[in-house]
Amino acid sequence: MKRAIILVISTMFILSAGIVFAEYPEKPITYTIPFNPGGESDITARFQEPILEEILGVGVTVNHKPGGGGAVAWSEFQRTAKPDGYQVIGVNIPHIIGGPLLRKNSGYETDGFAVVMWFHFTPNALIVRADSPFKTLKDFIDYAKANPKVITVGGSGTFSANHLELLRLEREAGIELTYIPHTGTGPLVPAILGGHLSALMNYSMLPVQQGDKVRVLAVASEERVPALPDAPTFKEQGYDIVGGAFRGVAAPKGTPKAVIDKLAEAFTAANKKIAERQLPMGFVMTYATGADGDALVEQMGKAYSDVINDILEEQNK
Amino acid sequence: MELFWKVATDLMDPFVFLLILGGVTAGLFVGAMPGLTAAMALAVLLPFTFKLPPLQGLVALGAVYMGAIYGGSFAAILVNTPGTPSSIATAFEGYPMAKDGRAVEAISIATISSAVGGLAGVFFLLLLSPPLARLSIKFGSAEYFWVAMLGLTLIASLSPGSTLKGFLGGSFGMMLASVGVAPIGGENRFTFGMPVLQGGVEMIVALIGFFVIPELFNMAAQGRAALAEVTMDSKERGTFFNAVRTVFSMPVNLVRSCIIGEIVAIIPGAGGSIANLVAYNEAKRASKHPELFGKGTVEGLVASESSNNVTVAGSMVPLLTLGIPGAPPDAVILGVMLMHGLRPGLDLFTVSGDLTYAFILSMGVAAVLMVPVGMLGGRLIYKVIVKTPHYFLVPSIALVTILGTYALRNSFSDVVIMLLLGTIGFILRELEVESPAIVLGLILGGIAEVGFVQSILRGTSLEHPWVMLFQNRLSQIIIVLMVLSFSSPYLSAGFRKFKKGPAELLEDEEDVE
Fold first, then answer.
1. Which residues contact B97 (CB under 8 A, 6 or more apart)?
2. Is 3.50.50.60 the CATH number for A25-120+244-316?
């Protein structure tokens, strides 16, 4: 008798779990992009949208909530989003790592998300104009050693992937550069082409777009980027610098695992389809889901911890 | 020649034509709604364009962009609310005209001017891309700072009462621009511990607040809609041809406004929101009767609406040649191009020339199609607004405004900020501190700050970093322009006195004889 009851109950559990799994999703999903329309996050989401709708069988609404380098959307999401799988949000490394550490009252926490997946990586690249006297990374570093702070390097944002990477290069190579933050990737192009800066630290897409107008001195990836076969990595040239922006999607903390898995499955399928278009643009596709996703956040947090500590020390002075 | 025929046949495709027509119409209505921007319309369209071949996708986006910038004039003329920041100056003249019962005339003139501007932009893009592209990259951080300073001198002419009060408004606007995460340095400023303020005060939120809310208060207080009902002439055909005649009777104004629009368009980040104000200001300075500006003068309307539509195709000069998006909608178009494997640069005009030229010319077609679509749509909107009793109109506009503000960033806080700024704007207007000066300060404050700090940072290794602000030839030219612009009202007043002086002396001498 007792055994029969256990059997019935456990069958019910299995069935109900199955029902939950089969039922989700049953209404449209809201996919928030914490940046402006037209950026990498937005365009990727627009691309995923129809594929996700096809796989999940419900509508996926992409909306924007830009501001504060993502902070406006992330803080509201962590405060208000229900963990039912119908609200997801775009997340970025290192933004979600650096923001809460370096800015008071950012309103969100690095580990306050349930990461569904990190779907691509755009490595940082050190870029100069085609007619620059710096032919190699060595030229660049030698000059910087002899002339501290003279080289001006532009990048997108403060405490951003570009900025943190430049600080890491300064530490690793023992040089002093002058970082000039810009409001996004767009304004960097005229700044370098017009000769207003000596170099850029920006993502791998920029040199792909600009072709032979610019030269890449080094890319911060493990291996060479498929779209830039001639650009050497920092590692090849003796500097252990790997970094850039990872883009992914997250649900609110506490979302059931079955739901997260279902979403991860859909995003993985979408990513495979998008790959053929994004690879030639300079993206590196990633498929970090579940524990791999959390591990990536931790790993990148460690990689940037030295420079972040430096900044914190500076701030507390 | 072969290329020409290929492009022509591509554009003759009825489906492409329908896309342009549909795009212009959709854009017009999006632009007419305060809060809905051209960039947002393009972003929503993006998934659909992926399913289309590259040309058709780009054509649809270009048409929506063109229609949206033009559509902003309707709200500006009819309810004194620039539908997009590109129509701020349109409201200065269009709304007083509408109040006098000349709304249909104002809409017709805005339509013709927009079409002329749109075509002029296509002309610049088609024929002058290489030199304009070279000019556009000459603008570095120092030049941005000085351009913003030059823009601030507009305040003197945008504040009809007292220049001092104008600058007070401008300073308030610049202070609003500094709320949120600092563009350089990244620290939180004036957020008072509220995470939502990290995003700052969005320009369009402020625009809606400062322009619509005071107007609604006025309408409610007066107990009637401000628009005077005009006896609709059944034989209105005359208005259209009269408008054509009026617009083309001021060729100097048109050419000047189009050139101003193009120059502003190639400076990345400026765009239509600044072009319309600069063109308006220059039209006023050149006018024989500047004192009539702000009271329903056609010249100002023509200047604003022609210059802002130049920026649509005009801002694609740096986009197509260098891959530099001049304005947010351009960023969306760049994204689509890259997704289709089209890389900005010389290849675009040679290897995929048929596609590029067809895209450029399609924007010209869109500009022409704005005339019939706008004349019909404009009258429709006008009739709805005039026929609606004020006790329905005020709450309806309020509702649309609130929805538009919310939709901008899906943020309820933006609605609160909008209402708050609107109330402040109403009080300040009673004190004769005008909204345009505040909004101009908000637009230019950010540009000035970024340009200034970047220039000083670039000079880190120098003994006097501020030298960076003065060393380029282009900076020096802009500084001269700024000084001239700032002092011209005083100079011309002095000049008139001077001219009058000797003449009077002569008369006196004659008297002696």
1. B77, B103, B105, B106, B296, B298, B301
2. no
